[in-house]
Structures are given as structure tokens and as C-alpha cells.
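Here comes my example:
=====
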Amino acid sequence: DLLLFMPAMLAPPLSRDSDGDGLPDLWELHGYTRNGVFVDLPALGANPWRKDLFVWMDYMVTPDSTNLAPPQSVIDNIIAVFNNAPVANPNGTTGITIHPILKNQVPYVQTLGVASNFTQVWTDFDVLKNNSFPAAYAPAFRYMIWANTYNQGTSSGLARDIPSTDFMVTLGGWGTVGGTDWQK
């Protein structure tokens, strides 16, 4: 069984997590308020008896107007892959309900960080994240950016750590700028 890591674990009884997805049942049933902001997980489709994974997706647009965000067809494929994961749920189903929510265009940068400096990659990433991603969502969401490149290279992406709540997809340096739908 796959336990989905989330940074915010609360003391009982708030920590009851029937499906093991890292989101307390109370949040999945009623939402939660953080710093005066209500995060309505039920309205976003949360289910305390089926694993949920919420991803806030920001994206860049290149100077020549190439949108690095995925089209809906790619998002639909991502949803299908997670839905078909061989992971058991308390409600008798298998799979993970991923909620990839395409949100904001962030300022374009050619590359996050500089060659071989992962500290600078995450410093640059955090500037974009802090200007776009409300802190109230951090306990329940992963944050990602569809970016151009990082470390001046052509890697397809990077996670801050494993496990992690921050990651990027970076297909801007590929033959098809932003990658093909299949590559995304």
C-alpha cells in the first residue's frame, strides 16, 4: 500500500486518515481554514476513503509565446494513469485520484538556477512559488511549475527531495520547446 507523504500531520483525532493519503479525514470531509483562508477540499473532489493527491500547477510562457503548460488532454492522461495505479483504497476501489489544478502563469525565466548549483535552483523556484502559491494550500497540495529549464540543462524535471511536495517539469530545452504531449 502506498502512503502519500504530506508535511502536515496533526495530533489525534484530527490526524485520522482512513485512506492513508496524508490528508486528515476531517479536511477531506469539511475542508480546513489556515490563516483565515478556507481550503474547500470536498468541493475539489476529496474523498476520505480513496487516496487523493492535490497538485497546484503553475506554468511559464516563453518570450515567443510558447505556453509550457500542458493542454487538457495531457492533464486527462495524468489523471487516468493515477486512477489506474494498483493501490488499494478503503472503499474497495484501486487507484489514486489526482487533482492536477492548472493555476497561474508565473514570470518566465530562461533557467532556474545556474549550472550545477541546486541551491540556486530552489531559491529561484521559491521566489516564484511564494508569489503565486497561497501558504494556506501548502498542507494539502504539492506545488509544481511547468518551467523552461533548470541548471542551464535539458533535464525533464526535478523534485526538491524524495519524498517531496515541490517539483518542476522542464522541457523548454527539448527539440520541441516545452515538449510534446507524450513527453509531458
